[in-house]
Design a protein that fits this description.
about 180 residues; 10 helices
Length: about 180
């Protein structure tokens, strides 16, 4: 490896570390403050990075939040992509709620910090809706939209109520709510 290649790798690793510090700082701040009250200054102070380091990686605190939410969204999207709702709906919902519960702390911070739902949970967008549809008929498009919206609302309520129900109990409720028949 040349000296330039080593330096380039070092810069990439440094940027990744800086980004991780910034994301962690934002999550930490959201434990005690609403998102609207968090400033870039408070993020960089908590992260221990320079203002320049922040702006080399992000344009705003919203960009940081979008990156955090995108990681969560991708985690859920990967789950939905790998599993078919209609093969075994009960198991699908159980596994989905288990996967969401694995990230419960971050979801709860986002909800507690009053981050808008459309940023926190994106169940009702593009690819997710396609994955929930069996075909392109209008009925399936409406069904996918209803399931997506129901998931969003139910997950938010589940978190607000302290996640008292198990993933298995949530699966049974969602099956009844979404009227899924094989």
């Amino acid at each position: 490896m040349s000296k330039n290649e080593i330096l380039k790798m070092s810069n990439i690793e440094s940027n990744l570390f800086t980004k991780e510090c910034i994301c962690t700082a934002l999550l930490s701040l959201m434990a005690t403050e609403t998102f609207d009250h968090i400033t870039v200054t408070s993020i960089i102070n908590r992260a221990g990075v320079s203002r320049g380091g922040f702006y080399r990686n992000y344009k705003s605190k919203e960009d940081v939040l979008e990156e955090i939410c995108e990681e969560l969204f991708q985690y859920i999207l990967d789950f939905i992509t790998e599993h078919n709702l209609y093969d075994n709906p009960k198991k699908w919902y159980e596994d989905l709620f288990r996967s969401i519960a694995e990230n419960a702390e971050i979801f709860q911070l986002l909800i507690k910090a009053q981050v808008p739902r459309n940023i926190v949970l994106k169940f009702d967008e593009g690819l997710i809706l396609q994955k929930l549809q069996r075909n392109d008929s209008p009925m399936e498009q409406y069904r996918a939209a209803a399931i997506g919206r129901a998931l969003t609302e139910v997950v938010v309520l589940w978190f607000r109520n302290g996640m008292q129900e198990s993933p298995e109990e949530m699966a049974v409720m969602l099956l009844k709510l979404c009227f899924i028949n094989n």
